[in-house]
Design brief:
alpha+beta, single chain, 6-stranded mixed beta sheet, 33% strand, Thrombin, subunit H
């Protein structure tokens, strides 16, 4: 997964990040189905707070179209987290029409992989 930050989290505007998932394994590692509306882990050394607004622009595996979704920080993994987990934030999708469609698309791509016991970047 490639991450490209595009704005300052200290600003009043949402933090905008572009994520490019090369393959299904990268998407599985970042997806957070625990969030009711779905969400993604964004590895970042920047400090964020719960509730901070994000705008994610995504390139899903095998697809050329970029998809945009808004959300808020609902999970924080601090620097030097146990188990060697990367520092970053879990962004829960907003729950609007666009994010529900994205959640369905991600879960379609992941298919049976969602039931895997393989660790992700969050768990």
């Amino acid at each position: 997964m490639n991450t490209t930050p595009a704005s300052d989290p200290g600003a009043s505007q949402p933090t905008r990040v572009q994520l490019s998932f090369e393959d299904q394994a990268a998407l599985y590692g970042a997806y957070i189905p625990l969030f009711g509306e779905g969400g993604l882990f964004v590895a970042t050394p920047r400090e964020h707070r719960l509730g901070d607004a994000f705008e994610l622009v995504l390139a899903l595996p095998g697809e050329s179209e970029l998809l945009a979704v808004s959300g808020k920080v609902a999970w924080i993994t601090p620097a030097h987290a146990p188990g060697g987990r990367p520092q970053g934030v879990g962004v829960a999708f907003a729950g609007d029409v666009a994010s529900r469609a994205l959640k369905a698309r991600i879960e379609d791509i992941l298919g049976a992989t969602l039931a895997s016991a393989r660790p992700t970047q969050v768990f």
